[in-house]
Every structure is written in C-alpha cells, then in structure tokens.
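Example record used in the benchmark description.
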Amino acid sequence: MSCQMNILRKLVTNAKPKLFIRKLATLKTANEPTPMTVFDRKAKVIQKQRAAIAEDSSVYEYIKEEVGYRLSDRLFDIKRQFNLVVDLGCGYGHVSKHISIDNVKELIMCDICQEILNKAKNPEPEVKVSKIVVDEEKLPFENDSIDLIISCLNLHWVNNLPSTFLQIKNSLKNDGVFLGAMLAGDTLFELRSSLQLAGIERDGGIAPRISPFVRLRDVGALMQSAGFSMLTLDTDELIIRYPSMFELMWDLKGMGENNAVLQRPLRLNKNTMFSAAAIYEKLYGNKDEDSDTKGIPATFQVLYMIGWKPDPSQPKPLSRGSGQISIKDIGELDKIVKNLGKIET
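Model output (structure tokens):
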C-alpha cells in the first residue's frame, strides 16, 4: 500500500496538466468485502507477482499476446488519433507494444501489479508513456479526461463489473471509446467439468476450483446500463491443446491466472487431481490414435467489446416506423434495391 501511494504521490507531483488523477485520499488498493465479492483481489496480486518474477514468465503469455494483437487490430480500425489513452491492466504490454504515434499521442499504462509494470513493453518512442499501479475496481482518473480506455484480459477478475464499467464511462470524454477483451462464457469448461466430476467421485462434493466467468449476453446489458452507446460485441474462441491437464494447470499458474475465488479450497487433493486428469482425457482427449492432433483441448472464449460515451455528434437511430422496407421482404432485397434506384432516377 505504502509503495503504491509513494509512486502515485510522485506521479501527481510531477505530472503534466494532461494527466488527470484524483486526490490520493480517494484511492484504495482493495475494497472492503461486500455481497458482490467473489474474488480475493489480494491473492490475485500475489499470484501475478509470483508469475512476473519468474525468469520464464514470457513463455506463458501466448494467449494474452494473441488477444492483444487482435484487440490492437480493432483499435486500428478506428480512424482517429487519440490524445490521451489508458491501457487498463496492460500486462506485459500485449496491446501497448502495437500502438504507434499515428493512433496515440500519450499513453498511461496501468496494472495492479508493479512487477508486471516493470516488465511491460513500451510502444514506439514517439508516444509519451507513463506507468502507474491502478486497481481496476477503483479507477483514479478524473471524469471526462480520457479519450480511449483499453482493457485486455483483466476484467474477468473484477468483483463489481457494473461499477467498473460505470467508472470507465465516466472517465471518458464525450465521444470517447472503451475497447476491451475479456474471458467469458465457456472458458475452460473442460477443466471445470473434469474437476467437478472428480470432486464428486473422490471428495463427495463440488468445490469452486475454476473462476466463474460472466455470461456473454449479460455484458451488453451491463455496458448499456453503464451508459455506453453504439455497442459492438463479438466473440472468438481459442482452443489450445496440451499434453495433459497438468501442463494446462502449470501454464495457467505461469500466466497468473490460477484460481482466486474467495471461497476456494486451500489445496487440491492428489487423488482428486489424478482422477480429474483421467476424466479430462477420457471425455475430451483425441481418441483417434492415428491423428496428428494429440493431447487434450482447452477452450478460451474471448469477448471483444467496443462502447462509446454518448455525444450529440454521434449518429442517431431513425424514429420508429420510418423504415420503408419490411423485414419480411428481406429475401427480395435485391429487387427492392433495384426498384428504389429506378424511382430515384
């Protein structure tokens, strides 16, 4: 806590007027437990620190690297140069390293773990860069101060997601953009079901060994409730194959993505673990011995989000009843378009 406060105090003292940070008295690194507290945020920070100080930490970043590249590609589709951008939960710079001066003038890289920030890769030298420790549940930015906020694979560990979405929207300027990617839906469903079946068999019950993920259909409703407009949501699935369940769990630990549920069990029984590995192989492993695709699959379902803060300059939908073509005639759309062209000429 004291280390973070010293960093932020120094940053605020030396910051340029463009860097909008709230008063230090309003900042907290961890919120008090509430009925919405699902994850142990302190444990998650420790897990990230352990992963970051490992010498081979870069080996385990292949999923975040791929998603960061795909998210940056969506950024390039927005034909605008942003003055001030926040990379929230920047990790090792999975998105930031793709940013150029053509898109961003000034970048604030944020993460909850200082050790990760120390290893984060910067964008090209022309972009001004600042790095600060920030808790995603308590954003320190002033309202109407940021042009673009990016978030890559970190919001799935947030307890109060509606509050974080609202804080992001409030921090944006009018017509500002939120561009995010998060794990959701059926992520790691194979591992979850295997551990549950093994728990029933060996331990006589189910324990929360895999983080719950937000349902895809709920994210749009949460963003709309937060006040975002012109929402764009799409999903993608990454299926990675591993020799066995043990390699998958080892890689998750190396990513800093191991279990951080508040009511998680302290240990995984050895018999339960071996039983889960056998169930995983039996249910999801490749049964074709002649196939080149061996091992077990692990599904990572990624939800990409684009939301805009409302502004009068944004396009508005037409009023209800103003349409000239009925949805029931969609099969004859080509004929209708040709007829409209004849009428206009």
